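Module 6 notes. Inverse folding takes a fixed backbone as the condition and produces residue identities as the prediction. Think of it as a translation problem where the source language is geometry and the target language is the twenty amino acids. Below is one complete input and output pair. Work through it position by position during the lab.
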C-alpha cells in the first residue's frame, strides 16, 4: 500500500488501519499490568513511543528542539523517541504497558484506544494540568482537544493533523446540471432527484468496506440530536442507541438507499481498492461523503480531477434537528498521553507543550497536514493546497463539537459488532427498528 500506510499521509489506510483496527490488542492483558515508570527513564531521559510512519519526522524534529530547550533543562529531562512500525504499534504498546519497559509518553488515537489504560489507572488525567497552563489551554482548537476525551476528562494532547469527514462533489457534474452544494437536507434530496433523472448516481459509496457507511450515520445522528446522543453511548450507556435521533437517522439511511442515492451496487464497491474514488472522479457519481484524505487519494489516482473538478462543502443541516450544523465528525487527530508512572512528570508535561508551538505546526503543514493548533491559520498559505487546508481548518475551528469516529470511540470489539449491524441496515437485511434493537444489545 506504499504511502497509504502513513498516518501522516492523507490516505485511506490512515482512517482504517489506524482507526477501528488500531485497538485490536489493547483490550486484553491489562489487568495484570504492572508499569514501573518508563523504559530508559534513568538519567532524566523519558521514552516516547510513536507510530513510525512518514510523518514521524515532525515528532523527531520536536524532540530535537525540546532536548535543547530551556524547558528541558529546567525540568531536568530529555525525550528519546522510539519509532514503532505501524503494523506492530498496537501490540507492542499493549505489551510494553504491562511491563517495566512501559513508555513515559505515547502516541494514540484517543477514545476507545486508551480506554483500557484509563480504566487500569495507567494514564495521567491531564484535565487540571491543561486548565491551569496557558500554553496547553489555549494552544489547541477546543473541539479537537475535547474529541479525544473519556467521560469529559482529558488524557491526551493533540499532536498530528485533523481528518474531518467532508461532503465532496464533482464540480463538472454540478456545473453541467446547474447545481450548487446542498446546505440543507431538503436541498440534498432535491439534488438527488435531479441527478437520478439525468442518469447520474448521487453518491459514491464504498459499501463493501462498511466504514464509509458509518460516516452517514455519524453525521445524521449529530445533526438530528447533537453530539450528546453518541457521547452517551461512548460513555458506556447502551440504552443511548434508543435515542429517537438514532432511529430517525437509520430511517433516513434506508430512505436514501431505497431511493437509489448510492446506486444499486454500492455493497460490492470498495474504497480500499479505489472503486468508490474512481466512480466519483469519472462522473458516474456526483458526490462522495469521505474523510479529508479523499483529496490526497484523488490527487494520487486522478490528479487532473483533484486539481480541477474536486469540490468540498460541509455536511448540510437538517431542518428540525437539534444538532448544530457546524458540528464535525471524523478523526480529530492523534494524541500524546502520559504514563501515570512517569519518572519525570515535569519533563513530560513540558514536552507536551512543544505540540502547541509554531515550529511544530509549521512542520505539520509542510508535511501536508492541517494542524489542530490555535496558531495554525496563519501558516496554511504554505500548504500544498491552501484553499482546501483553510476550508478544513475553518470548519473545525468553528465546530462546537468534533465527534470521534464511532468505531474508534467504542474500541475494536464493539466497533466491529456495530459495523456488522450498519452493514445489515444499508444492505436491507435489517430494518431501522431492528438496527436500534441490535445496537442496544451490543456488549
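Target side of the pair, the amino acids:
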Amino acid at each position: 500500500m506504499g504511502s497509504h500506510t502513513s498516518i501522516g499521509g492523507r490516505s485511506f489506510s490512515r482512517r482504517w488501519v489506524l482507526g477501528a483496527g488500531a485497538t485490536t490488542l489493547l483490550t486484553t492483558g491489562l489487568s495484570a499490568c504492572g508499569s514501573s515508570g518508563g523504559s530508559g527513564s534513568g538519567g532524566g531521559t523519558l521514552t516516547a513511543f510513536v507510530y513510525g510512519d512518514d510523518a514521524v519526522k515532525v515528532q523527531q524534529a520536536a524532540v530535537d528542539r525540546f532536548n535543547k530547550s530551556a524547558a528541558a533543562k529546567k525540568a531536568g529531562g530529555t525525550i528519546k523517541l522510539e519509532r514503532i512500525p505501524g503494523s506492530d504499534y498496537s501490540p507492542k504498546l499493549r505489551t510494553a504497558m504491562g511491563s517495566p519497559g512501559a513508555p513515559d509518553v505515547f502516541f494514540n488515537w484517543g477514545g476507545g484506544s486508551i480506554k483500557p489504560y484509563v480504566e487500569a489507572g495507567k494514564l495521567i488525567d491531564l484535565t487540571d494540568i491543561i486548565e491551569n497552563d496557558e500554553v496547553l489551554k489555549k494552544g489547541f482548537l477546543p473541539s479537537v482537544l475535547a474529541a479525544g476525551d473519556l467521560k469529559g476528562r482529558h488524557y491526551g494532547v493533540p499532536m498530528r493533523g485533523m481528518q474531518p469527514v467532508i461532503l465532496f462533489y464533482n464540480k463538472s457534474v454540478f456545473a453541467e446540471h446547474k447545481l450548487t452544494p446542498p446546505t440543507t437536507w431538503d436541498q440534498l434530496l432535491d439534488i438527488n432527484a435531479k441527478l437520478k433523472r439525468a442518469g447520474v448516481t448521487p453518491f459514491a459509496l464504498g459499501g463493501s468496506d462498511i466504514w464509509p457507511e458509518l460516516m452517514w450515520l455519524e453525521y445524521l445522528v449529530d445533526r438530528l440530536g447533537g453530539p450528546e446522543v453518541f457521547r452517551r453511548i461512548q460513555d458506556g450507556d447502551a440504552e443511548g442507541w434508543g435515542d429517537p435521533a438514532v432511529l430517525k437517522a437509520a430511517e433516513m439511511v434506508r430512505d436514501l438507499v431505497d431511493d437509489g442515492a448510492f446506486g444499486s451496487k454500492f455493497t460490492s464497491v470498495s474504497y480500499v481498492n479505489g472503486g468508490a474514488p474512481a466512480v466519483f472522479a469519472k462522473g458516474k457519481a456526483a458526490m462522495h461523503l469521505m474523510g479529508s484524505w479523499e483529496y490526497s487519494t484523488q490527487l494520487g489516482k486522478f490528479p487532473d480531477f483533484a486539481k480541477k473538478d474536486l469540490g468540498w462543502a460541509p455536511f448540510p443541516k437538517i431542518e428540525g434537528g437539534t444538532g448544530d450544523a457546524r458540528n464535525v465528525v471524523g478523526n480529530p487527530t492523534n494524541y500524546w498521553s502520559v504514563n501515570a508512572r512517569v519518572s519525570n512528570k515535569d519533563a513530560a508535561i513540558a514536552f507536551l507543550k512543544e505540540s502547541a508551538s509554531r515550529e511544530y505546526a509549521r512542520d505539520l503543514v509542510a508535511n501536508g497536514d492541517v494542524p489542530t493548533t490555535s496558531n495554525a491559520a496563519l501558516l496554511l498559505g504554505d500548504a500544498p493546497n491552501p484553499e482546501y487546508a483553510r476550508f478544513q481548518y475553518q470548519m473545525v475551528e468553528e465546530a462546537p463539537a468534533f465527534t470521534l469516529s464511532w468505531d474508534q470511540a467504542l474500541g475494536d470489539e464493539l466497533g466491529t459488532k456495530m459495523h456488522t449491524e450498519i452493514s445489515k441496515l444499508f444492505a436491507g437485511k435489517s430494518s431501522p427498528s431492528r438496527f436500534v434493537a441490535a445496537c442496544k444489545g451490543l456488549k
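Reference fact for the lab report: Residues 412-427 form the longest helix (16 residues).
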